[in-house]
Write a structure and sequence with these properties.
single chain, 295 residues, mainly alpha, Ammonium transporter fold, 2 domains, 16 helices
């Protein structure tokens, strides 16, 4: 099977780009993510493929570094733009066009930050999606996706399912099975990252519950997915890695709860992965100051 991917590197790069949504440069992780997305919605699955392909193709045509393309670095923000638009809006011809255009633009913005050596994470996805959601809401009559209005049937409250749901919501998937598949997908690439992510999702759910957030939304993983990403960034086998994970996760949860409670970003569609990016950036700054002081 590995020989197949070597013969068709474009497909390999797309799968790695999808895997990089949770910072995993692993084609099998990307493939499992894709399966989990298609299980939730074929529109989201097709959107992810189109937008990731658009981002990867743009990077190739603009002759960005082949090592970066091969690692999937121009795919993950593009993938999230695609799945976000397909999840939020009825998939009209305009939305499909914006999915492709947004994927291409995500690669260009990603490249700018890579060139500046700034750890941008999913920030290109956030900016593009905020702008598009605002514009679509105010200047078009495109209806919200049926997925938004569908009634979520709550399963029996279970701590494990709540924290795996945190993995699912990273890619806008609320299904229990999708969340479990995403957790397994990260685990086969990096067990330590998956376990830290699981712990972060539990912490996010627990603290949000103490903060009085709606139990149904906590169970869906809406207060855990940003924490999952922050934990994965700093995960490692050193004891100090655990400390940085804790700092990043706590900051992310605080930012997440504050933004949601005050409806700060409702006008642009929601917080998306901004709490993860903000919490991680602050933690990296603290880390930098700590290392400089220690030296």
């Amino acid at each position: 099977m590995n020989e197949f991917f070597k013969k068709i590197p474009f497909i390999d790069n797309i799968l790695k780009g999808i895997g990089q949504i949770m910072l995993q440069e692993n084609r099998w992780t990307g493939l499992l993510f894709l399966i989990g997305i298609f299980m939730g919605s074929w529109q989201c699955g097709v959107a992810v493929l189109l937008s990731t392909a658009a981002g990867t193709f743009t990077a190739m045509k603009l002759k960005y570094a082949q090592s970066e393309i091969n690692a999937g670095l121009y795919g993950f923000s593009a993938a999230l733009v695609g799945v976000a638009l397909a999840f939020l809006f009825d998939t009209t011809l305009l939305i499909w066009g914006l999915i492709i255009l947004g994927g291409a633009l995500a690669a260009v913005i990603q490249h700018f930050f890579i060139q500046k050596k700034i750890p941008v994470f999913t920030f290109p996805f956030i900016i593009i999606t905020w702008v598009l959601v605002f514009a679509l809401h105010h200047f078009t009559h495109i209806q919200p996706s049926a997925m938004l209005s569908a009634e979520v049937v709550p399963s029996k409250y279970d701590d494990f399912l709540t924290c795996t749901n945190g993995f699912g919501e990273v890619i806008f998937q609320g299904g229990v099975l999708s969340g479990i598949i995403f957790f397994v997908a990260v685990f086969i690439s990096s067990p330590i990252a998956a376990l830290y992510g699981l712990a972060a999702s539990i912490l996010g759910a627990g603290l949000s519950q103490l903060n009085g957030e709606p139990i149904k939304e906590i169970h869906m993983g809406l207060f855990g997915f940003n924490a999952v990403l922050s934990a994965i960034v700093f995960s490692g086998v050193k004891k100090t890695d655990g400390l940085w994970v804790l700092i990043a996760v706590l900051l992310t949860i605080i930012i997440d709860d504050l933004l949601i409670d005050n409806h700060c970003l409702d006008v642009v569609g929601g917080v998306f992965t901004f709490p993860f990016v903000a919490g991680t950036w602050i933690t990296l700054l603290i880390q930098k100051v700590f290392i400089k002081t220690k030296a």
